[in-house]
Each structure stands twice: as structure tokens, then as C-alpha cells.
Please model this.
Amino acid sequence: MVMYRRTLQRGGVYFFTATLKNRQSTLLTQHNKQLYYAIKMTQAKHPFKMIAHVILPDHIHCLWELPENDCNYSSRWRMIKSIYVRELKKLSLPIQYNTKGEANIWARRFWEHTIRDDYDLEKHLDYIHFNPVKHGLTAIPSQWPHSSIHAYIKKNIISRDWGTTNFQEDQRFEKGE
Model:
């Protein structure tokens, strides 16, 4: 059995990738309101700051900052996934279950990276916002509706045409997917 080691840093900033079991699915973008709801409900019970996010058809990338006395991101992900499945059930979507009684929607695990410094944070912000272009879903990042890039544009942190010229995504972030 593979032993996963998670970095637990109280009040840390983390980059996450959570995927659907079926990587050809478009469930997350088709039912993004239910995902946003699951995140909001989880934040209400177990606060965290969503620094950035992008929802793609089959996965979500996000950056979270946890409260200074807290490092339990796993229970938050468990709650988000669970609420999302419950919300899909309310829509009468056909949901299959495995032998353990778990819905066959989300991949069991998620990928986590602890942000080390400002440069690391900037790389991951860029990665999140450029990801729809990387996957061929849009020509420029600001065209993708399910992204925090719009909040960054509204606050004049980045320009609407960010990611269109002189931007080499592979030079700013080396992680593959």
C-alpha cells in the first residue's frame, strides 16, 4: 500500500488539484453552481480563504489559505466532495456507487502542494489562471467563465489580456498534469 505523506502547516497556503474519477466527464462545468455551493457551505463550517481557483470540466485547481491555527484541509475536501454529490443527487442525476458505498464521481485522493514563498505563489496563480488555455478550452484566460481571474481583473491586479502575448506558461510553471 502506498503511504501518502501530506504536509501539514497551520495557517499554510496550499495548491490543490481535485479530479473526477472519469477524466472525460464535463460534470464540474455542467454543474458548477453545485460545486460553488459545496465550497461555500464548507467555508461556512470550516473557514478558509480561496485565493484563486479554476473549474475545468473534469478537475479543479485552487489555492487556499487556512486559518492560522488550522491545517486540516483533508476534511474540507471530504466535505466539498460529499456536498457536491448530495447536490447532484437532488438533480436526479444517475450516480453509481462502489462496493464501499462511495459515489463513483470524485477520484479518491487529491493533489496538494504547500506554497513555499511568494515566487511559488505567483507560479501557481499563473498556472491556475492559464489552465483553460493549456487544456484548449479557450484562447485566452479571461474568456473562461469558471475562474478567479475575473476577480483579479476587476481589482486591476492583472489585465484582461493577461496570458495572450509574451507569456510562456511552460517557463512560469514546470508542473505537468
Q: What stands out?
A: The beta strands are 13-20, 49-55, 59-65, 106-114. The helical segments are 27-30, 32-45, 73-90, 118-134, 149-154, 169-172. The domain at 13-172 is CATH 3.30.70.1290 (Alpha-Beta Plaits).
